């Protein structure tokens, strides 16, 4: 009899624990009531063709969180950042989001990767579960115009990056610009912004687009089509690996047209894969050069060497680092239990956040995208070099 009673009590206790854990994603103190831990989650493509971006981004954020934990955490609370591999697949990402919220009890999604992938989770994460998504790596204008409850970004939108590239090419004197882009809608939407920005700088500029099947590796026919168009400048809206394939084939076919790329192209992996073919490549970036002597950038390099040995301290890992740093700086202002609601309120009142490695961020109840600024970078002698300072691209129509 006593054993049956004990088993019954155990079952009741287990059920209560499960209910408590599921409540954590909707504003309860993190880690199932343990206010010594801030449990947050993210998804990254750690396998597949886009892992060349996902792995270093995760490493940069992980290095920052590890450094903060080693220094005592956020106001004495340890950061438990749970990362799962989504293979860059929206369907898998939705399943991951459900596990993070329902099983792991995260109070926020922090620095996740992917535009279509993250957007697929919004109905469940933002709307149903009321779990905020902070500083995602990706995004489009519809996320922030108008502001969406619980969603705050710091990565200059791809559309704004494209506007900067169109204006840059036109200012460099290009009269015929060809935009080479992957065929998924997220890439198409970005590519469409280049034309208006170029014509806004010089009305006589003609801009055409060339769509390429996503994850194409053979760029021989693509370069043949580019040569037939005879452009003065080419803008690449491609992944790093695809951009490298373009550059290598262009060099092989002796195509010397100047090339401009958005931030995913400005990666160490592009240099590694393209080799000498990347020399002279122009791009915009979201952060300072990893080679910068600035103390904030040096802190990044030192932390990468200590906490992520073997991983490159490059632009892509610095994206992850700046996202993690922005989150921590704002989370430090939370007084009392760290809940979903408390973190969201902290972002709304953040006003100004200076990470030291990226543009200054500005948040408010009416402004959930922290910045539109970018930085020009150019490949010289096999290394990415910064040009000038952060600037604001032309306004989009």
Written account of the structure:
The protein is α/β, with parallel strands linked by helices. The chain has two domains: 228 residues, Response regulator (Rossmann fold, 3-Layer(aba) Sandwich), CATH 3.40.50; 143 residues, Response regulator (Rossmann fold, 3-Layer(aba) Sandwich), CATH 3.40.50.2300. The chain has a seven-stranded mixed β-sheet with strand order 7-6-8-9-10-13-14, sandwiched between helices. The chain has a five-stranded parallel β-sheet with strand order 2-1-3-4-5, sandwiched between helices. Helix 2 packs across helix 12 and helix 7 packs parallel to helix 8. It is globular and about 60 Å long. The N and C termini lie far apart (75 Å). The N terminus is likely disordered.
In brief:
The chain has 397 residues and is an alpha/beta fold.
Task: Describe the protein's topology.
Blueprint: H1 2-23, E1 37-44, H2 51-70, E2 78-85, H3 90-103, E3 108-110, H4 115-119, H5 122-128, E4 133-134, H6 141-144, E5 151-152, H7 158-171, E6 176-182, H8 185-201, E7 206-212, H9 220-229, E8 233-237, H10 240-252, E9 259-261, H11 268-274, E10 282-285, H12 295-307, H13 315-331, H14 340-348, E11 351-353, E12 361-363, E13 374-380, E14 383-391
Parallel strand pairs: 1-2, 1-3, 3-4, 4-5, 6-7, 6-8, 8-9, 9-10
Antiparallel strand pairs: 10-13, 11-12, 13-14
Helix pairs in contact: 2-12, 2-13, 7-8, 10-11
State the name of the first-level CATH class of the largest domain: Alpha Beta
Give the proportion of residues in helices: 40-55%
Q: Number of DSSP strands? A: 14
**What's the name of the CATH homologous superfamily of the largest domain?**
Response regulator
Secondary-structure class: alpha/beta
CATH structural fold name of the largest domain: Rossmann fold
The CATH architecture classification of the largest domain is 3-Layer(aba) Sandwich
């Amino acid at each position: 009899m006593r054993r049956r009673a004990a088993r019954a009590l155990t079952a009741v206790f287990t059920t209560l624990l499960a209910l408590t854990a599921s409540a954590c994603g909707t504003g309860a103190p993190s880690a199932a009531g343990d206010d010594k831990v801030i449990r947050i989650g993210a998804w990254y493509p750690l396998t597949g063709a886009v892992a060349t971006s996902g792995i270093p981004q995760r490493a940069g954020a992980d290095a920052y969180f590890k450094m903060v934990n080693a220094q005592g955490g956020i106001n004495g609370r340890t950061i438990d950042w749970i990362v799962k591999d989504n293979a860059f697949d929206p369907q898998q990402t939705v399943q991951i989001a459900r596990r993070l919220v329902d099983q792991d009890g995260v109070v926020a999604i922090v620095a996740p990767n992917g535009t279509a992938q993250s957007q697929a989770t919004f109905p469940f994460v933002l709307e149903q579960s009321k779990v905020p998504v902070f500083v995602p790596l990706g995004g489009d204008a519809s996320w922030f115009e108008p502001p969406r409850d619980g969603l705050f970004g710091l990565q200059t939108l791809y559309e704004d990056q494209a506007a900067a590239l169109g204006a840059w090419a036109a200012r460099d004197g290009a009269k015929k610009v060809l935009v080479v882009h992957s065929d998924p809608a997220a890439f198409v939407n970005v590519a469409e912004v280049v034309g208006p920005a170029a014509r806004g700088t010089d009305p006589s500029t003609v801009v055409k687009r060339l769509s390429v099947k996503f994850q194409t590796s053979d760029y021989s026919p693509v370069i043949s089509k580019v040569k037939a168009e005879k452009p003065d400048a080419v803008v690449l809206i491609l992944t790093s690996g695809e951009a490298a394939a373009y550059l290598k084939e262009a060099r092989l076919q002796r195509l010397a047209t100047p090339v401009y790329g958005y931030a995913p192209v400005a990666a160490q992996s592009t240099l590694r894969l393209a080799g000498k073919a990347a020399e002279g490549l122009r791009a915009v970036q979201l952060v300072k050069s990893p080679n910068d002597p600035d103390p904030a950038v040096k802190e990044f390099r030192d932390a990468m060497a200590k906490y992520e040995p073997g991983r490159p301290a490059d632009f892509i890992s610095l994206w992850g680092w700046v996202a993690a740093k922005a989150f921590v700086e704002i989370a430090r202002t939370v007084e009392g239990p760290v809940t979903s609601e408390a973190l969201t309120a902290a972002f709304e009142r953040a006003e100004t956040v200076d990470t030291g490695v990226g543009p200054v961020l500005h948040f408010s109840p009416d402004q959930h995208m922290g910045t539109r600024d970018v930085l020009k970078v150019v490949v010289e002698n096999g290394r990415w070099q910064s040009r000038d300072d952060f600037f604001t691209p032309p306004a989009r129509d």
